[in-house]
Amino acid sequence: MKLVGQSAMNAGSSIDEMQDENDAVSLCSMFAGSESFGIDTRKIREVLGKRELQRVPMAPSFIGGVVPYRGEVLTAVDLRALLGMSENSATSCVLVLEDDEVSERFGLMVDEVGGVVTVNRRMLETNPCTLEARGKWLFDGAYKMQTGLMVQLDPKKLRPSRLAETGLFKRSVTGHMTGHGGTGAMDASTDSR
């Protein structure tokens, strides 16, 4: 698995400058297109690396397929599709995420997985206006890194069952599922499921 390097200086503050250890949060960095994202490492069960997924007929566009994982078959959410990006023809990296509150495991498809970066949670900016509207409802906010913005994803909002509940993806006349771009059809950030 190829790891993409990240700078040790993160989110405008060094580890020494953090008030206490509760300010530090470790994020696994990942990429979809040219955009950088992060998820709290405590929510990631495993990084599977590049995988070919089994496509699911008639599934919503945000479902990239299913992937076998330790005797289970997990649904994999395609981050590129959720954000309205063009499909990546290459195989995607799959991370296994786990939501302990509802005992649900699922995969997240991204282009590349970077490394683990430590950031100061106090430096999280609530969805800066520079972020595009598409997908904002999936974000907790963004950190200013030396290389640009790293958007923190909310794993609860990425759960396949949660995405299906949003109503953002409706069946079209042809029977395929289509997305409404996540630009305000529902403010999913107010629902804590």
Automatic annotation (TrEMBL):
**Cellular component terms (Gene Ontology):** cytosol
Q: Which GO terms describe its biological process?
A: chemotaxis; signal transduction
Q: Which InterPro entries does the UniProt entry name for this protein?
A: CheW, CheW-like_dom_sf, CheW-lke_dom
Which top-level group of life is the source organism from? Bacteria
Which PROSITE patterns does the record associate with it?
Answer: CHEW
Query: Segment Disordered: which positions?
Result: 174-193
Q: Where is the CheW-like domain?
A: 24-164
**What name is this protein filed under?**
Chemotaxis protein CheW
Give the organism, scientific name.
Edaphobacter paludis
Source species taxonomy: Bacteria, Pseudomonadati, Acidobacteriota, Terriglobia, Terriglobales
